[in-house]
Design goal:
Largest sheet: none
Organism: Luteipulveratus halotolerans
Helix content: 55-70%
Protein name: HEAT repeat domain-containing protein
Number of helices: 23
Radius of gyration: 21 Å
Strand content: under 5%
InterPro entries: ARM-type_fold (IPR016024)
Distance between the termini: 22 Å
Amino acid sequence: MLAGYEQVLGMPSGAMQATCEGLGRSIFASGRPALQRARALGGGQELLDTVYDGASRHSTTGGDWFALTSYWDHMHSTMIPLAIVRQLTATLLAEMVRSCGAAYVTRYQALCHLADHPIYAQVLVEAVLDFIAVPGVEPVIDAISLLGEGLPEQTAPVLLDLGADPAGRTRTGAVSALSNQIRMGAFPDELRPRLRQLVGALCAGSLDDARLARQLIVRMGPEDQAAGMELLRRRAAPAPATGVRPLPPPHAPVDLARFEHAAQEATGLPRDPVLRRLLQEVHVHDRVDLRHHACLLLMASPYRVSLADVALDVLTEQPGSASSVSAGIMLSYLATEDHAERLTALLPHSRPEVRMAALTALTHAQGVSPDLDLLALSSRTEFPDATVRYAAGMAAHPDLGSWAQSSTVPMEVRERCRWWQRNGSAVRR
C-alpha cells in the first residue's frame, strides 16, 4: 500500500516506506515494524542484479537499496556469498553518509535491515568499524548510530568500547546509539555494570562528556538515573542541567499556528492534529531522536514547501533564539531547490548561526555554487570549519583541493578534505 502511495504522489521509491519504518524503530519504540513489503517479497535475484551492477557505477537508487535489503530482511536464509554482502554493505554505508532527503532515509533504513539481520548484522558491525578507522573520515556519528539499530547482543559491547574512545565524535556516536537501545528496551541487562562505568567516566570528563553522560542517564532506570544525576551534581567542573524537560512542554517558543496556517493555505487541507504534534516535536524540546523523525515525516508530507517558507522567516526574526534554532533545523530537512535563492541571500548574514543554518539547508537542498567563497563563511577564517567542509564535500567544491594541500591548514583538516575528495559528493537519488 505504501509503495502505491509513493507512486501516486510522485515520491521517490521507498521514501514513505523507509520513513514509516524509522518511526517504528524510534518514536513508537516497538522494534521492527510489521510492514507488508510488496515489492520485496519477490524478484530477489533481479533486485540483487540491479543493485550489484549499479553499485560499481554509483547509479543505484535509495529505493533499490531499500528493496533489496527488505528482501534479505524477509528471507533470512538467502544464499548470498558474504563477500558480496560485505562489498555491497561498504558501498551502501559510504553512500548513506553522503546522502540527503529521500536518498538518506531509504539508505539508512536499508542499513537498518542489515543491523538486525541474524546473519548480516556482524557484517554491518565490521563495515562500520572499518569505515570509522579510515584517516580523515568525516561522518563518524552517522555511521556509528547504525549500531544502535542492531542486535544488542552483538552491538552493545562494541558501543560501550566506542563510548570510551579518545575521539570525541566517536564517543558522541556511541552514546547516541546506546541511548537508542536503552529507549527501545533492547540494551542487555547483563551489561548494566559496564554502562554505569561508562557514565561515571563521562561524568568525570569534560563538559561535553558530561552532556553525553546526561543523554544516557535520563534514559536509564530510576535507580541508575538517580545515581547518575548525583555524579553530575558532584562535578568540580561546570555541569549540564540535571532536570528532565517534559515531553512536550506546554508552550512552544514559536507560534505554531503560523506554520499550520501556511500549510492549510498551501494545500487546502483542514486543520491537521498530526501536523500540530509534529511541529511540537520539532520546536518544544531537545530530544534529538524525536525531532529527527518528526522532521522526516514533515519532509514526506504535502506541507514541506510551505513549512520551509515560514521557517525561513522565523530563522532571521530573532537569531540565536530557540525558535530560530528550531527553524534552522527544520530547513536542513525541508528546504528544496525552490528555496535556494533565499538561502543563498542569507549566507552573508551578520549572525553566524543564521549563516550556518542557511549553508546547511542549501547543501541539502541543491548544493552550493562552485564559485561561492566558502572560507569566508567559516567560523575560523584561516581554515574551513566542519559545516563549511561538509558543504564543500557535498558539492565537490573546487576549494577542497586547495585546502587539502595548503600548509596553512591543520593536518587534521587537510585529511578530512582529502576524505571528501576520495569518497565523492552528495547522493541525491
